[in-house]
Design brief:
Elements: H1 5-12, E1 20-25, H2 40-43, H3 47-55, E2 57-62, H4 72-79, H5 91-98, E3 107-117, E4 123-125, H6 133-146, E5 153-158, E6 163-169, H7 200-217, E7 225-232, H8 240-244, E8 248-251, H9 255-263, E9 267-268, H10 275-284, E10 291-296, H11 298-304, H12 308-320, H13 322-326, E11 332-336, E12 353-358, H14 373-376, E13 382-385, H15 389-396
Parallel strand pairs: 1-10, 1-11, 2-13, 8-9, 8-10
Antiparallel strand pairs: 2-12, 3-4, 3-6, 3-7, 5-6, 11-12
Helix pairs in contact: 5-9, 6-7, 11-12
Length: about 400
């Protein structure tokens, strides 16, 4: 088998004192509301991003493959340089790790979403009105205290708002089970279906959990049921330090992204609540790490809500804080998203994601002077694969030796 790009970079890595910052504005890419109009990013006033685009090099990236709409898990793994087609990791493990739930060899972890169903079992709200975290915690505890499945240790923990983690612990569990989320309202939730014979036991346990959960939650409102997504066991994966020689830290508010970071061996620290807090956290740990992953969620959640003006506002809020981040003088700054989330579609999409790489010592400027979808389509980076971003960041940080004689 020929070596992978990651194997090559691992062989070429060398250490120095340079700092790399990867700022991921989740779901950054968008679409015009009307044909020929501006996207959310193009509509936003972004003087700092425009300046970085002018000084750095821009382009686009494809997270997984052309035409493929990806989730946040594969998108972030690709940004960290892990081929998402090789490392197919369910969101359950990521959510679990993000809230410090252990996932061992006998475990399958699942991401749950509280939802609202009507008297006929039809889903009327996939996020149960975005219930508060306090309500979500109470309902998760109610499930944890009352679901009983013989021979299975069941753990239920709240994550944030309508999200929760379910962990099944038993012998012989395999994670090839289809999600129960119908992905749109107006339909019943799906049955947890095993996609191979080895996963039948897990699917049966999940079905029994859901049967009991429906009874336990039947008198709750609006969160009177839940859906299961991302059945997953813990994968065999190398750490960022093993691959890149980087001491890495994640500064992310939402648990799933903290889980992603832990999966690849990053340290996870308290980020505070705002993006300004996250930058202050980076400043506080600046001398302790080589690689800083900062995650900004609100460009994605506003896109999923179909709120074009709010997504514009969230992009502008991000831009307004960037001067504080640049004051830390990172040797390399990568700004991009893990996928596009157009407000027009109210969902993730397959569209290429805007990308800029800023490195004072090594940037080769292109003719792009603004950070927007039309502009960066003409940038010097072209349209690259997301797994190529980390090698470029390493090269700009002068952390790669020459390959060959």
């Amino acid at each position: 088998m020929s070596p992978s790009l990651q194997d090559l970079i691992s062989d070429l890595k060398e250490k120095n004192g340079t700092k790399i910052v990867m700022l991921v504005a989740d779901g950054l890419g968008g679409l015009p509301i009307t044909p020929g109009g501006k996207t959310e990013l193009e509509t936003a006033s972004t003087p700092n991003l425009d300046q970085l685009a002018t000084e750095g090099t821009t382009g686009q990236h494809t997270p997984v493959a052309a035409g493929v709409t990806n989730g946040s898990g594969p998108g972030h793994l690709a940004l960290f340089g892990y081929d998402p087609l090789q490392f197919q990791i369910g969101r359950g493990v990521l959510e679990a790790l993000g809230i410090d739930v252990e996932v061992g060899d006998r475990d399958v972890a699942i991401r749950g979403n509280f939802c609202t169903i009507d008297a006929d079992g039809i889903v009327t709200d996939r996020r149960a009105g975005r219930i508060s975290s306090e309500i979500g915690a109470r309902l998760a505890q109610k499930l944890h205290d009352n679901v009983r499945i013989p021979g299975v240790e069941v753990l239920v923990k709240p994550v944030k708002e309508y999200r929760l983690v379910i962990r099944f612990r038993a012998d012989g569990l395999v994670d090839n089970v289809a999600d129960t989320d119908p992905l749109q309202t107006g339909f019943k939730t799906l049955e947890p279906r095993a996609t191979d014979s080895a996963s039948e036991k897990t699917a049966q346990i999940a079905a029994e959990f859901l049967r009991q959960a429906k009874e336990i939650l039947k008198d709750e409102s609006p969160a009177n049921f839940l859906m299961m997504r991302g059945f997953a066991k813990f994968p065999d994966i190398k750490t960022m330090e093993q691959v890149y020689g980087l001491r890495s830290v994640a500064i992310a508010v939402y648990p799933m992204y903290r889980g992603l970071a832990k999966l690849v061996g990053m340290d996870v620290v308290d980020p505070g609540q705002t993006f300004a807090d996250q930058i202050e956290t980076a400043k506080r740990f600046w001398n302790d790490y080589d690689f800083f992953f900062l995650h900004y969620k609100y460009t994605d959640s506003t896109g999923e809500d179909g709120n074009f003006p709010k997504k514009v506002e969230m992009i502008e809020a991000l831009d307004a804080e960037l001067d504080k981040l640049m004051a830390l003088k990172p040797d390399v700054l990568v700004v991009t998203g893990d996928h596009s989330t157009p407000s027009r579609l109210k969902s993730h999409s397959w569209h290429a994601v805007p990308l800029l790489i800023h490195a004072n010592a090594t940037s080769r400027p292109d003719d792009v002077t603004s950070f927007g979808e039309r502009a960066v389509a003409h940038g010097g980076l072209g349209n690259i694969k997301a797994i190529e971003i980390m090698p470029l960041a390493m090269a700009h940080a002068l952390r790669l030796q020459k390959y060959g004689a």
